[in-house]
Amino acid sequence: MGTAPTEVLAFPKISAIVRENRTAEVIVAGNSRIVPAGESLQDLRNNALALVVGEAQTLQRPVRVQIEDPEGHGELIVHPDHKIESVSYAPRPARRRAEPPETTPGTIAPAVTDTAPARAPKPAAAPTEPAATLSEPAAVPAAAVPDGQPSPPHPVESGTTPASTNPVEQQTAAVAGQALPTRRTLKETSFLVSAPVLEPATQGWRGTLTRLGFRMDPSAEELSEREDIRTVSQHWPGPRTIAVVNRKGGANKTPTVVMLSAILARYSGAATVAWDNNESQGTLGWRTEKGSHDRSVLDLIDSSTELLSPATNAAEIAKFVHHQTADKFDVLRSDENEEGDHEVTAEEVDIAHQVLTRYYRLVVMDSGNTARAANWRRMIDHTNQLVVPVTAIEDRAEAARLTLQTLESRGGHNAELARNAVVIVSESTDAKRSMTGEALKRAKDEAQRIADGFEPFVRAVVRIPYDPALVNGPIRYETLQTATRRAWLAAAAAVASGF
Predict the structure, then answer these.
(1) Is the omega angle on the peptide bond into residue 196 within 30 degrees of 0, that is, cis?
(2) Residue 34, C-beta contacts closer than 8 angstroms, at least 6 positions apart
(3) How far is CA 224 from CA 147, 228, 229, 415, 493, in A?
(4) Number of alpha carbons in the 13 Å side-chain half-sphere of residue 172
(5) Helix (H) or strand (E) holding 418
(6) Band (228; pLDDT cuts 50, 70, 90)
(7) Higher pLDDT, 5 or 464
(8) Residue 282, pLDDT above cutoff 90
(9) Which pLDDT does position 110 carry in this prediction?
(10) Handedness of CA 383, 386, 389, 393 (dihedral sign)
(11) What is the pLDDT of residues 59-102, one digit of tens each?
(12) Is the pLDDT reported for residue 279 higher than 80?
C-alpha cells in the first residue's frame, strides 16, 4: 500500500537533475553529489535514484525527490526498500523549430470566379412586362467541389417542394437542367481503417511512471529506437545480399559482418547467414562460434548438386554452416586449410550464392582486400546493399574512399552500389584503453571528421563508439555496452532501408 504524499516529510530537500550532456547530480539540503557516469540517460537516472535510495536508507524513512531531466520534471517518493511512487510528472513540450511560413499550393488563395450572369447594359427604359418566373441560382463551378464529395444541393426557395425521388420526375428534372444530388460509393470507406495505437513508454522517467500506473507517451529517443527496430524486423520479397568491403585490412569488416548478421537475425527472425568470401584465410571463423564439424565454403560447393535438389531437406544445410546459438545466425567459413591453395572462382561464387539463397533470406558477405579478385568482383554482382566499414584512422579511411571510387569508376551496378553505400565509422581501438582526457576527445573528433567527409558521397553514415568487446575473441551481441548496441541497431536500420 503506497504512502500518502502528505505523510512524507519535505526535509531534507532533495533534487535529482539529469542533463542532456550525460551529466547528473543529486542535491541533498544544498549539497551536490555527482552521479556516476553511465552509457545512456537511463543509466544516469538509475544511478541518481540509487543515491536517493541511499539517503532514504540513511534516514530510515521515505523521502521526497524533485526530478528534472530533458524529458520532463516532477516529484517522486523514494522508499528505503527501493520502492518508488509518483506524486506528479509533467513532460516537456516537444521542441519546434521556428520557420517562416512557406508558400505552397495549399496556402495560396484560390482565384475568385464571378459566377453571376453577365450584366447587360442598362436600357434606357425598364421593360413593362412582369417577371413570370424566378431567376435560377448561380451555377457552382466544378472546381469548387472537392473530389469524391457530394455536389452542394440547390437552395430550396420558400414555398417550394423538395425534388422527388421518382425516376420519371428525376428524368424530367435532368431535362430541365437541374443538378441531382450525388452520393459517395461504399468502396471509398472502411470501418476497419483506424490510426495505430501508440504503446506507452518503457524507457526513462516516462517508463518508470508507466510501470507505476501513470501511462506516459514515449520520448523522441524511444520512438526513434522503435522505428529502427521496425525497419530491421521486416521481411522482404526474395533474398537480400549485403557485401561488407574495404581494401585495407583492420578496417573492422569482420565485426561489422557479425553485428549486422546478429541484429538482422535477432529482430527479423529471418534465416541469416554470414559468408566469409575471402580469397585467403578469413577471420570470420575465428570471431564466431565453431560447430561440430570443420566444413567450409569449398565443401558446400562440392555438395551443391545435392543441396539444390528438390528432394533435399532444408535441415541438410546445417552440415556446412556453423550456428551462432545466442545471436541466431549461421556462419559459412572460408577454407582454413593451411596446405591448400585453392582460390574460389567467380563461377564458384555463383554456385555458393545460389545454394545459400535457397536456404536463407539474408546473406551477409565478408570480403578480402583485393578488389580485382574474381570472387570479390562476382560478390559485387550479387550484392543488393554495399556496406563500407572504416576505423577512424587516416589510412583506413583512404582505403575506404578508394574502394568506393573503384566501384564508381566501373559504372552500372557497381556505381549504383557505391552511391547508395552505408559507411560505418568505428572509433579507433589503437591504444584506446590508455586514452584519457584530451586524447580521447581527439579520437572522437577524428571519427566525426571522417564521418563528415563521407557523408556527401553515400546514402548514410553511422558512427559506432569504441567497445572493448569488439576488439578480440568471439563477438557476442549481448556483451556490448548499451550505447554500442544502440549504434549498431541504427547501422542495421540504415542498411535495411536500402533493401
Answers:
(1) no
(2) 23, 24, 25
(3) 36, 6, 9, 31, 11
(4) 7
(5) helix 412-419
(6) very high
(7) 464
(8) no
(9) 41
(10) positive
(11) 899 999 999 988 889 999 999 998 998 888 888 876 544 444 44
(12) no
Q: How confident is the model at residue 134 (pLDDT cuts 50, 70, 90)?
A: very low
Return the half-sphere exposure (C-beta side, CA atoms, 13 A cut-off) of residue 154. 17
**For the chain, what is the largest distance between any 2 Cα atoms, rounded to a whole number of angstroms?**
119
What cell does 343 get?
Answer: 582460390
Of 224, 215, 184, 214, nearest in space to 197 by CA: 215
Asked which of 1-10, 237-246, 263-272, 416-425 is least confident by mean pLDDT, the reply is 1-10
CB under 8 Å to 71, separation ≥6 — which residues? 91, 92, 204, 205, 206, 219
Q: How many other C-beta atoms can be found within 10 angstroms of the C-beta atom of residue 415?
A: 14
| Range list of β-strands (E), 146-281 | 240-244, 272-277
pLDDT of amino acid 264: 98
Q: Could you tell me how far CA 370 lies from the centroid of its own chain? A: 32
Q: Under 8 Å CB-to-CB from 83, ≥6 apart: which residues?
A: none
Helices in 240-391 by DSSP H: which ranges? Answer: 253-268, 297-302, 304-307, 346-359, 374-381
Q: For residue 282, give the H/E element and its range.
A: none
Between the CA of residue 202 and those of 114, 221, 223, what are the distances in Å? Answer: 58, 11, 10
Q: What is the pTM of this model?
A: 0.69
* Cβ-contact 300, 276 below 8 angstroms: no
Distance CA 54, CA 240 (A): 52
Those residues whose C-beta lies under 8 Å from the C-beta of residue 13, and which sit 6 or more positions away, are 27, 28, 29, 30, 66
**The three grid cell numbers given for residue 88, joined into one nine-digit string:** 506528479
**Which triple of cell numbers denotes residue 315?**
535441415
Q: What are phi and psi of 157, to 5 degrees?
A: -70, 150
Distances (CA, A) of 183 to 163, 180, 322: 16, 10, 63
Q: How far apart are CA 138 and CA 432, in angstroms?
A: 81
pLDDT, position 176: 55
